[in-house]
Q: What sequence folds into this?
């Protein structure tokens, strides 16, 4: 009887092992097919993808086990046209996840590594004498130093407010600029095509302080308003100025892309409220650090109050990491050091210029799509003369295609449609900041799309 019991148990274990191995193989196979984890689509949140990460050991084992499969999937012909089967690979360019920058920062190693002990950064407070009392002094120095090196913003005599990304700073600015005793919610507008998150963030809490009032070109009310000026603009990449002609408006300038890898720097920006973020300046979106440069002390105090109530400050670890990274970028911009290290903005500019060259070549091979053209201007930082190199391609479907987002989705390319930006559905926004393999597949697939 005992022998039978052990025989039975052994067979159960063998069957269980076989089933588990089959499941593991299936998951690995599916991940290779899509080039993104399945959880990426399930957990996709507006503006970014959340991905389930495999640990390094498993990745190395899969690298060995599936090398032939990966070679087959990622292979391309010498002519640059995708081989059979590649059209089934899903390319997700809906979000602006700046993974393009990973390779540069891998080279930096210890130079940008931050180590903290468990007893450090326990206090809520960073600098009680500062308007923004949770702002780390090291981050202030790094921010002002970088703007001085690049020449893209005035910081002298201004107040800096740190936030959990520029999204929190945007909401803090709306809070600070909306009078609490107004006759109604403050109108918030931006010229279409506008950043797709503006309407969502403005109305998310259904605040009585402010409300989304749509396209700035169509706003003609004799009422107070806040106009958002994004320059270079997300999604189309053009340089922007305010458009509402009324005298009751307050401006917020979102300058997330006013860096020399995306646009020629013409002069230091000098506005009342300017928003920046490390996610697009250096690519460190996961650190969730943004900063506002504010002229008026009272506005800066109100913005600080919003963040205090909202999150009781901003992570010190993230601030210290951001400071280290910004300092490394500033150092690389120093002409005396350029022989010893790569200038971050020079590297990023060349990468963006090369990607825009490739996508324009791809679009020129087909009559189905078109891209905007940009005037040439001379950058005061680099001395180069070039047109905009936006972080997103504002792609238009020509001809009879009325819904470009759905059209591309049928070809397994995920983008964000023009309707989300207050524009025609013939347009889509596609990220230019993805990893090389996604971008390569995208530029190979576009010319292969026939209908």
A:
């Amino acid at each position: 009887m005992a022998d039978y019991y052990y025989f039975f148990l052994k067979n159960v274990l063998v069957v269980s092992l076989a089933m588990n191995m089959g499941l593991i193989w299936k998951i690995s196979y599916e991940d290779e097919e899509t080039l993104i984890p399945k959880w990426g689509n399930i957990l996709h949140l507006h503006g970014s993808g959340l991905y389930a990460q495999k640990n390094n050991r498993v990745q190395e084992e899969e690298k060995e086990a599936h090398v032939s499969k990966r070679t087959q999937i990622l292979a391309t012909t010498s002519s640059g046209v995708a081989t059979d089967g590649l059209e089934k690979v899903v390319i997700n360019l809906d979000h602006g996840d700046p993974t393009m920058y990973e390779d540069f920062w891998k080279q930096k190693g210890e130079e940008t590594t931050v180590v903290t002990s468990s007893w450090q950064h326990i206090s809520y407070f960073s600098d009680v004498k500062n308007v923004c009392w949770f702002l780390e002094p090291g981050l202030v120095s790094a921010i002002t130093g970088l703007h001085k090196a690049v020449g893209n913003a005035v910081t002298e005599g201004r107040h800096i407010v740190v936030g959990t990304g520029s999204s929190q700073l945007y909401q803090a600015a709306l809070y600070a600029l909306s009078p609490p005793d107004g006759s109604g919610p403050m109108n918030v507008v931006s010229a279409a095509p506008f950043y797709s998150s503006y309407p969502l963030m403005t109305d998310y809490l259904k605040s009585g302080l402010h409300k989304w009032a749509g396209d700035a070109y169509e706003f003609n009310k004799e009422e107070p308003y806040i106009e958002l000026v994004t320059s270079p603009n997300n999604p189309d990449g053009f340089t922007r100025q305010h458009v509402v002609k009324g005298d009751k408006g307050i401006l917020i300038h979102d300058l997330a892309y006013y860096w020399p890898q995306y646009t020629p720097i013409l002069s230091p920006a000098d506005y009342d409220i300017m928003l920046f973020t490390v996610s697009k300046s250096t690519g460190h979106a996961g650190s969730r650090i943004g900063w506002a440069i504010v002229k008026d002390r009272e506005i800066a105090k109100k913005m600080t109050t919003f963040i205090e109530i909202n999150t009781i400050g901003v992570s010190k670890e993230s601030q210290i990491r951001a400071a280290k990274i910004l300092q490394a970028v500033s150092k690389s911009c120093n002409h005396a050091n350029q022989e010893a290290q790569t200038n971050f903005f020079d590297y990023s500019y060349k990468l963006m210029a090369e990607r825009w060259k490739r996508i324009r070549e791809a679009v020129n091979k087909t009559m189905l799509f078109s891209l905007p053209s940009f005037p040439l201007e001379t950058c005061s930082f680099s001395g180069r003369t070039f047109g905009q190199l936006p972080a997103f391609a504002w792609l238009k479907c020509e001809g009879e295609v009325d819904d470009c987002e759905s059209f591309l989705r049928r070809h397994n390319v995920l983008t964000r449609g023009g309707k989300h930006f207050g524009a025609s559905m013939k347009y889509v926004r596609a990220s230019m900041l993805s990893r090389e393999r996604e971008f390569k597949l995208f530029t190979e697939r576009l010319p292969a799309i026939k209908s």
